[in-house]
Protein 1
Amino acid sequence: MQLTEKLTINTPSSVQVITPDWVNNKIQLSIKRDDQIHSIISGNKWRKLHYTLEQAVTQKTKHIVSFGGGFSNHLHALGYCCHQLNIQFTAIVRGDYSKNLSPMLQDLLDWKTDVQYVDRVTYKKRTNIEYIQQLQKQYPHALLIPEGGSQQQALQGVANIITELPQIYDYIIAPVASGGTLAGLIKGVSTYSPTTQVLGIGVLKGQGYLEELVASLLPNSQAFNNWHINHDFHFGGYAKSTTELNEFCGDFLKQTHIPIEPVYSGKLIFALKRLIFEEFFPANAKVLILHTGGLQGARS
Ligand SMILES: *Cc1c(COP(=O)(O)O)cnc(C)c1O
C-alpha cells in the first residue's frame, strides 16, 4: 500500500512472551511491540492516524492542523508523517515553549511545522464547536485532527491490532489518556475476539472523565461490556512520576530488554505488577500488554 511504503511502517508488530521476576507461573504474560512499528511514529499514534492519513493522501489534502502539549507523541508522529507526505502541518501547542524548546518541538521545527503556541485558556477550547469553526475559517483547506488523534475514524486502525494477534488472550491492557486507543481495542475485541476483556490504566486523574471520553468515541457505547478502567496508578497526574516508578522502568528494561517510559507504559506495567500481586487475574490467565510506544517523550 502506497502510504505505508512512504512511511515504512512495520506491521504486524511482534508479540513476545516475557517473564520478569514479578510474574508468577499462574499467568502467561505477553507484550505486543507496537513501539517497534516505526522509529519515530509512536505505535498507537500510527494506529490512530492510519486511515485518516490514507484519506488525506487520496484526497490530496494540502494542510493538517492538530493539537497537543509540548512533549506530545501525537504531534511528533503527525509532524513527521506530514513532512514525509509533503503536507503542511500546523501544530497548536498548549503553553509557550518558544524560549525553551522541547526535543519534540525542535523536531517539529526541523520538519517545517508551523508551531502556534496558545495559552491554557485557549487550549481548553480545542473541542469547542465555535473555536473549531473559527480555526476552519482561518485554515479553509485544512483537515483538523483532534488531540491525540482520538476520533471515531481512529478506531478501525487500532482495532487492526486485534487481527494481528497469534492467539486469544483473556485480557489486553493498555494506558488511557485521550481514550482513542482503548475505544479502538474495545471495538476490535468485540469484533474479532469477543471473549477478551480490555483493561485500561488511567495515566491521568480522570475517574469518570476517561470513561466518558471512551464511551463518546464508541458508536452505541452501551452495547460494549468488555472493558474497564483502573484509576489507581496515575501517580498524581499526567506525566507525574516518582523515583519508584522511574526505577521500575529501568528495572523492567534490565530484565526484559524492552524500553518503557514513566508517562504511559511505565504506569501501565507498574499497575500490572501490582494487579498480579493482588491476584486480580484468574489462574492461567493469558494477559497481553499493548506497548504503545512513546519513547521520544522521555528524551528530556
Ligand atoms: C498518546 C499515548 C497513549 C494514550 O493513548 P490515548 O489513545 O490517547 O488514550 C498511550 N501511550 C503512548 C505511548 C502514547 O503516546
Protein 2
Amino acid sequence: MFADLPHALLVDVARKAIALEPADALAKAQLLAIERQRRLLQPVINATGVLLHTNLGRAPLPDTKHTDQLFSSTIRASNLEFDLQTGTRGSRRTHASELLAQLCGAEAALVVNNCAGALVLVLSALAQGKGVLVSRGELVEIGGGFRIPDVLESSGARLVEVGTTNRTRLADYASAMDRHGRESIALSLKVHQSNYRIQGFTEETTAAELATLGLPVVADIGSGLLDERLPWLADRSGKTPDLPWLRGEPGAKQSLASGADLIVFSGDKLLGGPQAGVIAGRRDLVEACAKHPLARALRPGGLVLNALQNTLLAYLRNDARSLPFWDMATRMVEALQRRAESIVSAVADVKCTSVAMQSVPGGGTLPDRSIDSWGISLSGNRGGALRSYVDVPIVARTASGKTFLDLRTVDPADDTVLVDAIRVALTAKPSNSEAAPEHGGDDGGE
Ligand SMILES: *Cc1c(COP(=O)(O)O)cnc(C)c1O
C-alpha cells in the first residue's frame, strides 16, 4: 500500500528507493512514501496536555462541520475588500477589525499576521528614528529568537533602557525622558512577562502610571485574553468559573481602560483563534500603523480573517465555549477521569491505566501555571507508535519509560480513535529513546 500522494511525489520516492536500496526497492519505496506523506501539513490529535502547543498550531480551530453555514471556512469569492452597500472598493478592515475594536473597547483595530509583526509595525510606524522607553525587566526574548531589543532596532527605533531588572519605577521613566529630551522619545513600551517571571523584591510601573508621562503607552500583552472577567464563560446566573491559572493575565479591555493607548496581542493564544496579530487602541495611532508601507506586507489573507471573524462572533454571542480552546480550558476533571476510565476499560490491557496529571496553558504563556487534569498512562515509550497510527497521528508525552495521554487537550469525539490507537501501540515493541514534545519545550514564539 502506497500513501495517497500525487504521482510526481511518488516518482521522486521511487527514484530515491531504487538508488538507495536497489535489491529491495519496493519495500524501501513504501517506507519513503509514508515518510513523505508525514511531512505534509495534516491534522493530529494533541494528547500532550499543552493547551496552546506552538508546534501543534497553538489554539485549535472549530471543526467546520459544527460551525454556522453562513460562516463556513470554505469561502470562494468574498467581500474581502468590497463594499456590498455601495458596490465599490471596500477595506479588509471592516470585518474582523471592527469586531475586535468592539470586543476590546478600543476606538480602532488592525489585524496583521502575528503578534511579532504587530509589534514591528507599531514601532516602525510610531517610533522610527526616535527613542522608546522600555524597563530593563522587560527586555525579553519571547521565543524563537524574537527579542525586544532586536525588534526595536530592526524597526529603526532607539532603545532607551529604564530602571533595573527587578525594579523599575515611574521616576526612572521620567528621568530617562528628561535625560534624552522629551521630543526625542516616541513612546513607552510595556512587555507582558508572558514566558518568564521575576520573583522576590520586584516593582513594575503600570500602564496607568506610565500614561501620566504624556507619552503614548504601547503594551504588548501577548496572550490576547480579551476580558479578565471572562464574561463569555458565565452561566445563566452570571457566575463565571474560577480558573486560577489565568489569574494576573492582563485583559485587552482592562489594559486599554487602565491607560494603554495601544495594545498588541496574538490571535492564536488565549483568544483561541487563528494565527494573527492584533493592534488595538487609539484611532490616530492605529491609522498611523495602517498607513505604514509595512502594513501591506504584514496583512493577513481572507482565510485567516474569516476564521478570526468566526472566533470573534462566538465571543459576541457570549458563546466562546464553542471555541475549542475555552472548551478544553473549562473541562471538569471528573469528566476527564470518566473518559479515561472508559477508554481504559475498552482497551482492557494491564499496560494501560487511568491517572491524574497536570496540563499546562503553553504557547509561551503562563510559564509557572498548571491545570489539574486526567488521562491515560501506558507502560513503555509508545510515542513513535502513536504518531504513526494510520487514521491520524497522535502526539503524546513520554517520560521515565512511560507514555502519557492527557485528555484535556483531546476532543471527546476522538476517544474512540484513542482506544484503537492505544491497542495498536501496545502491540508494537516500545522504543527505547526518543525526543517527544515535552511540557517545558514549548516557549511559544517560534
Ligand atoms: C507570544 C508573544 C508574542 C509573539 O506572538 P506571535 O503571535 O507568536 O508573534 C509577543 N509578545 C508576547 C508578550 C507574547 O506572549
